[in-house]
Structure formats: structure tokens, C-alpha cells
């Protein structure tokens, strides 16, 4: 007696072409899910090799995340600025058993100025105290350690690029200004950051953080394991971060710690989209594959196969295919994860030297998820062929069922209505949440239309049939009649192409709407005439010097930072990091128009804060109330609200006094200075005087080039979305080609019958071209409309203009790619199907 497993295996062997579509869909879907899992694991335990702390067994730094009181373990937020630890902690750590030495390290921006006035800013350059050189270890190649305040030691690469040797003179720019120093020595040792060593006293002075240090490196006694020592150090470290191994790099490099959180966020959001799309694609592909075998299942029902046996057969076949495709896909996921890591590094959102953590859990989880999705899809697709009565089997197989079930119609149109409702949200909310909901509403509408696809496609084809017949008599009539009679098949071809078009449009034009709105509001709100900037930031002295230039009415420094808020929502606490900026309240009004609707910016001094109107309403704060949050470095804040404003897209939700903002950023440098000249002052003379200020690397530009404060971060997020969306669109493109080839290849007997009754090969080919045009056209039009409605509402809510922001060239590129993909896939499959002689093809079993 043949078992179900044997029968399933024989069916797969004899129908390799039919199962190829499901195999490819599961293979690619599993690869995507595995890649996302690897990214998530990397976010938990990967990093870069430590460099400055290579000799330290344990490194202690400030807490890298904020967890407010009452928040659960998942409600934490990564700090946006470099935190510090008390210098006195080094003494307590030094007394721990097994500690040979505890060395406190200062770290602050210190850039070398070359003889021709250039600032070496192609690589981050930091100043340190000389006694911390032992942590790398940095060893003297020549010369001596710095012994006076005007002496420094440079690393060898920095000395080479500055073209200076031992005993030479060089200028160093820090937050305190630019000073000439003597190079007393040069050290070996390489790092992704350049190193400038000062005397311990001078380094503490330049760091500008009395009683605080960047980190404490712990050297272990011989034979003491780092993990054992770390446990002992944690007992005295209080709330400080204690790290060993690769974790040390998260203290050394702020971007490593941020990258790990970013990878977790990418894996969560991108992985969720990937899994949703994969389930959708696998389900539609399996449904199409099973639908092609209607005659086979009808015959099995006619010879007394029970519904349970048919479902078991389909489930077994699917399991075999899913296991093989899943294992191969999980291996392919390693390459996909590596490619994503390289792409993210290329656009600058993660460090180029950030490695991936490869473990067994993500591939195994991807195989299980792929298998589960395939079995669920197989169960749903097997309900129809297993539920028909034996007496109706052959009739059911001969004619495609036209009507859809009531439950399917209610579900599909309910999703469409829910998606349209979500698209209205940007009319009432602003910011990133509006853009996210807009994109999600597009996907919900697409899924809803996919559920009721045969009904929608049938309605569209009802109008297209007479048009096609009128334009191309025989071929047009055949194309229209075929498409109208086989609405399910056409819908199966239209759906993935429509999803690809809509997803690509929403992913590209959604972020451009936010960027355009922020830039538009920033340009309208900036009343300054010039903006001063320099590589790596500028000294706070620049603003004061610019204010003394003849013809300058006001010069306000701007510090870009972030803050972390904790808002109770029900029984949980919502924690998020949001952009903020520091400005000089007494000068800001002359250079910026924040749209103040309550209070005064001139009161923005000391321990005060200004909030956007939306944030103040969300926190239920009024003028004079205390606002509690965390600075970017994780330090708690409790500031008095002195003003609210409406231009939050341009300036974020928090505006701080510039002096307070400087205290909580690692470099103590300003990002820019906004300058407004006096009425009637000569523009050229003022610009020349500003350019002549004695600060190396200072650039004077028109204020019109100023982007929104979070523009750089938003741009990086935009490119990040493009990379992630490109991978999903690539998967959808494979699915589109897969589906179109399957729906065309199954029609070999139909083509043979048409040719035997007198239709020429040319007429059949033209018929398929017209069907391809109709299929691609419907997908492009529906995909465009599905994306256009949420995008128009998003742009109207943010910019007051419903026309989507962004280059129209991208749209034409997307629809051109969709058209080429659809036409080529159908054309190639038709060409292959027509190669066989009609008399041979008509006898091929389905």
C-alpha cells in the first residue's frame, strides 16, 4: 500500500515544474527572515574589535541606555550622546581584588591644523590623557611623553598626515579654541580614530567635565579571568556599564552602541515586513500551484479519497518542499545578511568595521517560520479541493469557480476600509508616526485588494473586453474573454506586481514627504543671513566673535542633540529618543522663527526648556510647569517650561538653552552659528569679515543651505529604508516573475487547442501580449492608486500640498521596471509553451 509520504514524493518528482514556484517563494522568504534574524543577533552581541582598550580586561563607562522607573526591560532607549562616569570611581575599582590598575581616560575632540590652515577632519580625532595610553597599549616610537601643557604626543598616522615630526610645532583645535603645541613624541598603534595625547592635567582641563571621565580601563592581575573581574567590579560600579570582550567597543565608540540598537530596530521593523510579505507571497504561490491541480484532486475525490486524505497529501507535499527550501534559504540568509551589512555600511548608517554575529538560532528559526507559513498557506489552499463532493469533482475541475465566499469578501473589503481609514491619520497627526501609519495603510489596502482580487479583476476586465475586441478583433477578443473567464488566474498575476509597485512607491515617497516638509518649514523659519560651520563642530568662541563683527545684528550658536522622554501610557511607559537643539535664547529670535505661540524665547536661560505645541499637549504641560526627561547622555533633567512653538518639523520637540545643551554632548562643540546682519549693512563686507575670523576650517555659507536640525539623521534613515525596501522589492520581483511564469506555463493545452481549431501562432502570441499588457496595466494602475491616496493625504497634512514630494523620475522608473518584468516573464513563458507541436501538447496531462 502506498503511503501518503510516498505519494507526495512521487507527485513532487513528476511535477517539479509545478512545485518550482512554491520552492522559490519559500527559499527566498526564508533567506530574508534568516538575514533579519542574523541582524538581530548581531544587534545583541556583535561589535568591532576594541582598539584604545585592547590591554584592558574590563572597561567601565556610562550607562549606554536609559530605563526610566516603572519601565519594563524592553522599554529602554539608547543614549544619543557619549555618557561619562565619575572620576572617583577609578579609586574604588582599584581596590577590588584582582585589579592591577584602574586607569581613567578623558576623551574629547582635538583636531590637528596643518601648516596651510587645513583641519584634518577626514577621520575623527580625539584628545586623551597620556596616562591612558597604557590601555591600548600605545607605545612611544620616538620622543618623550608630554611633560608640559603645550606638549602633545601624536599617533604615527596622524603625524604623517600632518607632516610633522618630533620637536615640530602644530596647532590643535579643541572646544577651548586653537592653540600651538610642540610634538614631544610619536606613538605606534592604529585606531579608527586619530589620537592626540596631552598631560593628564591639560586633558582634564580641555575635556571640560570636572570630576567626570569618558571611561575607566581596568588592568587585571595575572591569571584573573575578565568575566570574574567584571563581576567584582559591578559590585562597586553602581549604575555604570561594565563590559568585557567585544562589548568594550560599545564604550569606546558611541556609534557601535548606537549601531547595535539600530540593527535591532531594523531587524524588528524590516523583519516584520519581510515576514508579512513572505507569508503573503508563499500563500499566493501555493494557492496558485494547488489550483493548477484541480483535475488531479477532482479525480482523487471521484475515486473515494476523503477530504482529510487530500489535505494530508497537500500538507505532506508542502512540508517536503518547505524543509528543503528552508534549509537552503537559511544558508542563503548568511549571504543576504552580509550584503545588507555592507549596504548599510556603504550609506554610512553603521561602521564599516562592524561585524556580524553568526549563530545557529536565526537559521533554525527561519526554517521553522518558513515551514509554519507554508503549512498555514497549504491548509488554507487545500480547503476547496478537499471540500467538494465526489459527484461534483469533475465539473468543479472543468470550470473555474467565479464567486467568492462571503467571509472572504467581508475580510477583503474590511481591510481596504481599514487601510483607507489609516491613510486619513496624517490629516490629524504630524511627524514620523504619520509617515509610518501612511506606509502601513498602503500595505493593508494591498492585502485587502489581494483577498478580493478576483472580484476587482473581473469588474475591470468586464470593461476591457469590448475595448480589446474592438481594437484587435480575434486576438483582442480572445485575450479579453480569457482574462474575464479566468479572473482568479489574472488576479494571482496582478496581486504581487501591484504589491511591488505600491510598496516601492510608499517606501520612497513617504520619507521624501517628511524631508520636504522639514526643509520647507526650516527655510521659512530661518531668518538668518549666514550660517557658520566647520568640520567636526566649532568652538563656542566663534559665536561670540561673530557677534562682534561690524554689521552683525545677532549671532546665535546652535547645538544639535537629542533627549529621551518617558511617557506613561496605560500600565506601561513609552520611552523614545527625539531630536532637540540648543540655542541662545536672547539671540534666537533674530535668526530663527520658531512660531512661538506662548511664552518668550528670551526666557530660555538656565534650567528652562521650550516645547513644541504638540509635545506640550501630549505631556499636558503649561507655561511654568516642570518638564522631566533625560538629556542625550542619559542624565535626568527637570526643567521649567518657558515657551511653546509650532514649527516642530524644523526644530524638533525640545529647544534647550545652548549652555545647558553643551554640557550634555561629548565634544562641547557647537554645530553651527546663525548670523543675521544689521539692516543696511553691506552683505559682501559682512561675509568677508566673518570668513576672516581666526578659526581654522570655518566655512561661511548662506543660511538658505541650512537643513532641518535632524536632516542628516533623516537622510540616513531614508537611505536605510531604500536598502531595506530594495531587498523586499527584489523578493517581490522574483515572486512576480515566478507567478507570471506559472500562470502562463499551465496554459500549454489551451494554446494547443486554439492552434488546432485554426488560430495561428502569431494570433496566440498577440493574445498573450494583450493579456500581458492588461495584467501589467491593471497592476500598475491599482498599485499607483493604492499608494497615491495615502501619499497625497500625507503630503497635504505635512505640507499643505497633495502632490507627493520627490522626483517623478523614480515613479517612471518603478512602473517601467514593473512593465518590463511583467512583459518579459509572460513573453518568455508563452514562447516556451508554444514550442511544442499542438498535437503533442493537447495530450499532455495537467
From TrEMBL:
InterPro entries in the record: ABC3_permease_C (IPR003838), Macrolide_Exporter_MacB (IPR050250)
Main subcellular localisation: membrane
Transmembrane region(s): 16-40, 261-288, 318-340, 360-381, 409-429, 441-469, 490-510, 718-741, 772-798, 810-834
Keyword NADP: no
Membrane topology: Multi-pass membrane protein
Domain ABC3 transporter permease C-terminal: 269-388, 723-836
Subcellular location: Cell membrane
Keyword set, alphabetical order: Cell membrane, Membrane, Transmembrane, Transmembrane helix
Family in the record: Belongs to the ABC-4 integral membrane protein family.
Protein name listed in UniProt: ABC transporter permease
Organism for this UniProt entry: Amycolatopsis plumensis
Organism taxonomic ancestry: Bacteria, Bacillati, Actinomycetota, Actinomycetes, Pseudonocardiales
Amino acid at each position: 500500500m502506498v503511503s501518503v509520504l510516498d505519494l507526495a514524493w512521487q507527485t513532487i518528482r513528476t511535477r517539479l515544474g509545478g512545485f518550482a514556484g512554491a520552492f522559490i517563494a519559500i527559499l527566498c522568504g526564508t533567506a530574508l527572515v534568516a538575514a533579519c534574524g542574523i541582524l538581530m543577533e548581531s544587534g545583541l552581541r556583535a561589535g568591532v574589535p576594541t582598539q584604545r582598550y585592547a590591554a584592558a580586561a574590563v572597561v567601565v563607562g556610562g550607562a549606554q541606555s536609559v530605563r526610566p522607573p516603572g519601565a519594563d526591560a524592553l522599554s529602554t532607549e539608547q543614549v544619543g550622546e557619549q555618557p561619562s562616569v565619575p572620576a572617583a570611581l577609578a579609586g574604588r575599582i582599584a581596590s577590588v581584588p584582582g585589579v592591577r590598575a584602574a586607569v581613567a581616560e578623558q576623551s574629547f575632540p582635538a583636531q590637528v591644523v596643518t601648516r596651510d590652515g587645513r583641519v584634518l577632519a577626514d577621520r575623527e580625532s580625539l584628545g586623551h590623557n597620556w596616562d591612558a595610553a597604557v590601555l591600548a597599549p600605545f607605545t612611544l616610537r620616538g620622543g618623550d611623553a608630554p611633560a608640559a601643557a603645550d606638549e602633545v604626543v601624536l599617533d604615527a598616522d596622524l603625524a604623517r598626515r600632518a607632516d610633522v615630526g618630533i620637536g615640530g610645532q602644530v596647532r590643535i583645535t579643541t572646544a577651548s579654541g586653537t592653540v600651538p603645541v610642540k610634538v614631544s613624541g610619536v606613538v605606534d598603534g592604529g585606531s579608527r580614530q586619530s589620537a592626540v595625547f596631552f598631560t593628564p592635567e591639560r586633558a582634564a582641563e580641555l575635556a571640560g567635565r570636572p570630576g567626570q571621565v569618558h571611561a575607566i580601563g581596568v588592568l587585571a592581575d595575572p591569571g584573573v579571568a575578565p568575566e570574574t573581574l567584571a563581576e567584582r567590579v559591578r559590585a562597586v560600579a553602581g549604575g555604570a556599564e561594565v563590559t568585557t570582550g567585544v562589548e568594550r567597543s560599545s564604550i569606546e565608540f558611541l556609534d557601535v552602541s548606537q549601531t547595535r540598537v539600530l540593527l535591532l530596530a531594523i531587524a524588528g521593523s524590516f523583519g516584520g515586513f519581510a515576514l508579512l510579505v513572505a507569508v503573503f507571497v508563499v500563500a499566493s504561490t501555493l494557492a496558485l500551484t494547488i489550483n493548477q491541480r484541480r483535475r488531479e484532486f477532482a479525480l482523487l475525490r471521484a475515486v473515494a479519497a476523503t477530504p482529510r486524505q487530500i489535505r494530508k497529501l497537500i500538507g505532506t507535499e508542502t512540508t517536503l518542499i518547505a524543509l528543503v527550501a528552508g534549509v537552503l534559504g537559511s544558508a542563503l540568509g548568511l549571504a543576504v545578511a552580509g550584503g545588507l551589512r555592507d549596504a548599510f555600511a556603504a550609506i554610512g548608517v553603521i561602521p564599516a568595521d562592524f561585524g556580524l554575529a553568526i549563530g545557529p538560532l536565526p537559521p533554525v528559526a527561519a526554517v521553522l517560520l518558513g515551514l509554519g507559513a507554508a503549512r498555514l498557506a497549504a491548509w488554507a489552499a487545500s480547503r476547496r479541493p478537499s471540500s467538494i463532493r465526489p459527484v461534483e469533482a469533475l465539473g468543479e475541475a472543468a470550470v473555474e469557480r467565479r464567486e467568492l465566499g462571503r467571509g472572504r469578501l467581508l475580510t477583503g473589503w474590511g481591510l481596504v476600509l481599514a487601510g483607507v481609514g489609516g491613510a486619513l491619520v496624517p490629516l490629524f497627526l504630524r511627524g514620523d508616526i504619520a509617515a509610518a501609519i501612511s506606509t502601513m495603510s498602503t500595505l493593508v489596502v494591498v492585502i485587502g485588494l489581494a483577498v478580493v482580487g478576483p472580484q476587482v479583476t473581473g469588474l475591470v476586465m468586464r470593461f476591457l473586453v469590448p475595448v480589446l475586441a474592438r481594437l484587435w478583433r480575434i486576438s483582442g477578443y480572445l485575450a479579453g474573454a480569457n482574462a474575464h473567464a479566468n479572473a482568479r488566474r489574472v488576479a494571482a498575476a496582478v496581486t504581487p506586481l501591484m504589491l511591488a509597485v505600491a510598496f516601492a512607491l510608499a517606501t520612497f515617497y513617504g520619507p521624501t514627504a517628511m524631508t520636504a516638509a522639514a526643509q520647507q518649514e526650516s527655510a521659512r523659519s530661518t531668518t538668518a543671513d549666514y550660517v557658520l560651520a566647520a568640520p567636526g563642530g566649532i568652538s563656542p568662541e566663534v559665536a561670540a566673535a561673530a557677534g562682534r563683527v561690524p554689521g552683525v545684528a545677532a549671532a546665535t550658536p546652535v547645538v544639535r542633540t537629542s533627549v529621551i522622554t518617558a511617557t506613561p501610557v496605560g500600565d506601561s511607559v513609552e520611552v523614545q529618543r527625539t531630536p532637540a537643539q540648543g540655542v541662545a535664547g536672547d539671540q534666537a529670535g533674530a535668526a530663527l522663527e520658531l512660531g512661538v505661540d506662548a511664552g518668550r524665547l528670551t526666557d530660555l536661560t538656565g534650567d528652562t526648556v521650550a516645547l513644541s505645541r504638540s509635545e506640550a499637549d501630549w505631556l499636558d504641560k503649561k507655561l511654568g510647569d516642570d518638564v522631566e526627561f533625560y538629556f542625550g547622555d542619559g542624565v535626568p533633567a527637570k526643567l521649567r517650561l518657558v515657551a511653546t512653538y509650532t514649527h516642530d518639523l524644523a526644530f524638533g520637540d525640545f529647544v534647550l538653552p545652548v549652555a545647558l545643551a553643551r554640557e550634555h554632548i561629548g565634544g562641547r562643540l557647537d554645530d553651527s552659528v546663525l548670523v543675521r546682519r544689521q539692516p543696511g549693512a553691506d552683505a559682501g563686507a559682512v561675509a568677508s569679515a566673518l570668513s576672516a575670523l581666526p578659526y581654522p576650517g570655518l566655512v561661511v555659507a548662506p543660511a538658505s543651505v541650512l537643513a532641518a536640525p535632524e536632516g542628516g539623521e533623516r537622510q540616513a534613515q531614508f537611505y536605510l529604508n531604500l536598502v531595506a525596501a530594495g531587498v523586499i522589492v527584489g523578493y517581490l520581483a522574483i515572486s512576480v516573475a515566478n507567478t507570471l511564469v506559472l500562470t502562463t506555463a499551465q496554459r500549454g493545452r489551451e494554446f494547443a487547442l486554439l492552434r488546432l481549431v485554426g488560430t495561428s501562432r502569431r494570433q496566440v502570441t498577440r493574445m498573450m501580449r494583450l493579456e500581458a499588457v492588461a495584467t501589467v496595466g491593471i497592476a500598475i494602475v491599482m498599485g499607483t492608486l493604492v499608494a497615491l491616496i495615502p501619499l497625497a493625504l500625507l503630503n497635504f497634512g505635512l505640507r499643505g500640498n497633495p502632490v507627493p514630494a520627490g522626483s517623478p523620475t523614480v515613479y517612471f522608473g518603478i512602473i517601467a521596471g514593473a512593465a518590463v518584468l511583467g512583459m518579459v516573464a509572460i513573453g518568455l513563458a508563452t514562447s516556451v509553451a508554444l514550442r511544442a507541436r499542438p498535437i503533442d501538447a493537447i495530450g499532455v496531462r495537467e
